Amino acid sequence: MTDYRAPTSDLPRSGRRFVSSLDVTVTASDTDTVVTVSGEIDLGVADGVRRSLDDELRFRPPALIADLSEVSFCDSSGFTAFVQIRAKAEEARIPFILVTQERALLRPMSLLGLDAVFNVHPTIASARDSLAN
After folding, report:
1. pLDDT digits 0-9 by tens, 17-72
2. Which of 12, 41, 67, 101 has the most Cβ atoms closer than 10 angstroms to its Cβ?
3. In angstroms, how far is the first alpha carbon of the chain from the final one?
4. Bridge pairing between strands 33-41 and 22-28
5. Rounded CA gap, 66 and 94, in Å?
């Protein structure tokens, strides 16, 4: 009997693609640096998000805000990246704040107990107000 199936290494590239669409922008001011992320955060892009935030920490901003308002999905690799950045920010004594109202992020954070770890605000204005107090 002959097997006519193609080996997995011969699958078309589109069949093996695991890259998410993600946009990252940075806005720095005298009071804070906002890293705005939009798209989905998964294993394919989590390290890039972590590097972007880590690069901004090296500039020692007064505060680092990760605006995740436009993130529709985040897997464990994304949350791991945020935990790593939080630890580095805390060590550098730089406030690190997540901004989101997305249930797709808040629910897993709650289930994982990360809502007690992260400083989360619904808006950038709310995050900035918390820094002023």
Report:
1. 445 578 999 999 999 999 999 999 999 999 999 999 999 999 999 999 999 999 99
2. 41
3. 75
4. antiparallel
5. 13
d(CA 126, CA 32): 13
Name the β-bridge partners of 34.
27, 65
| Among candidate residues 70, 52, 69, the one with its CA nearest the CA of residue 61 | 52
Token duo for residue 57? 């920490």
Report yes or no: 88 and 50 within 8 Å, Cβ to Cβ: no
pLDDT at 98: 98
Opening angle at CA 32, ends 118 and 72, nearest 5: 50
What's this model's pTM, rounded to 2 decimal places?
0.84
Whose structure tokens read 């690069």?
Answer: 55
What is the DSSP code string of 44-113?
Answer: TTHHHHHHHHHHHHTT--S-EEEEEEEEEEE-HHHHHHHHHHHHHHHHTT--EEEE---HHHHHHHHHHT
